[in-house]
Amino acid sequence: MSKLFNSNNIFMQTVDRFFTFCMLNIFTVVCCLPIVTVGAALTACSKAMQEMVTDPEAAVGKIYFQTFKKCFWQSTVLWLINLPILAFVIVDAVLLHYNFSGPMAVVTYVVLGVVAFLTLSVDAFAFQMIPRYADTLKNHISNAFYLATRNLHRTIPLVVLAICPFVIAALAPMFFFKTIVLWMFIGISCIVFLHTQLVLPVLLDMEETDEETTQEAEL
Q: Which residues are within 8 A (CB) of 197 and not within 5 positions of it... i.e. 6 or more apart?
């Protein structure tokens, strides 16, 4: 019995990870409520997940709120830039669906899809990069775009994960509302965790390359 409740036991580690996910999810949901703070909430959750992946003993709750405060303005500005773009895409897609058809409608769908894909791609990388690097928002956006286009094998699943809850809500609203508790308590943090698993190796590889370049330059 004592082995079962040992902190090094895989069962206890799993339980601890589950409650950490729930905690971060609740923090994120609450901090997203004003809508305009969604970017800051996702950035804080991304940083907490990065720390949890690299250091399982990290105080992720403290890290979450420190990051939320530190990165609030950059993350919020990025979100407020991209929110109207995504809203425009959604409204146009709905109008097309109910009012237009034919080749031009198909072309417009493709254009809207590309715009949405690029916007979500930049968000996926930028929300992971903002809390990790001290840089201007302009550079964060350009670097995120560069990494997203260079790593399409990671970017595509990032975008799929980002739109997953919205697709479920649109195509199966009854199922979505039946599982709303899961989304409220663990769904968002699971998506951010998977985002971190996809993006963090790219960032670590970039950091290692930069460090090697700096060492060679010093020699």
A: 53
What integer is the mean pLDDT of 52-56? 87
DSSP 95-107: HHHHH--SHHHHH
Closest CA to 60 of 51, 70, 73, 71: 51
Q: pTM score > 0.85 for this model? A: yes
* Per-residue confidence (pLDDT) for residue 13, from 0 to 100: 79
Q: Cβ(41)–Cβ(32) under 8 Å?
A: yes
User: Among all chains, which residue has been given the structure tokens 């590889």?
Assistant: 205
CA 153 to chain centre: 16
Structure tokens given for 168 = 């479920």
> What's the pLDDT band for 26 if we cut at 50, 70, 90?
very high
Cα 66 to Cα 138: distance, rounded to the nearest angstrom = 23
